[in-house]
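Appendix B, Record 12. Input sequence as logged:
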Amino acid sequence: MVRIRLKRMGRRHRPFYRINAIDKRQQRDGRVLENLGWYDPIARDESKQVSLKVDRIKHWLSVGAQPSDTVADLLAKHDVIDPEKRAAQRRARVAGKIEKQEAERRAAEEKARADAEAQAKAAAEAAASAGGDAAAEEPGGDG
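Logged structural output:
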């Protein structure tokens, strides 16, 4: 599968990214299929922040390439892809993550409750058996 993602360039504390079509299995700075533009987040002038080869990006999207989240946001900001559709995708993804976190939280609470009940039951059984042993020894000790 082909992804459209960022490749980090530039020096330390001065990031610069190339937007590339790259095989999903390649590492971040690995061999690219095609350079599709660049992104300079430090540039103050917005016209100098991004350069896109729109026709080539549309070609890669048409043949099934999937943009990373950051690249999709950049493309939506520059009207290469539909910004409303991208916003809906983001909302759905966030809602899914929230649901997953809630389900994990509920499962952890149920597990903690079950563990507490098991400990209470074990303590009650231990107290009952200790009480039964003490009762059995008392009559024999007085005699």
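Residues 82-128 form one domain.
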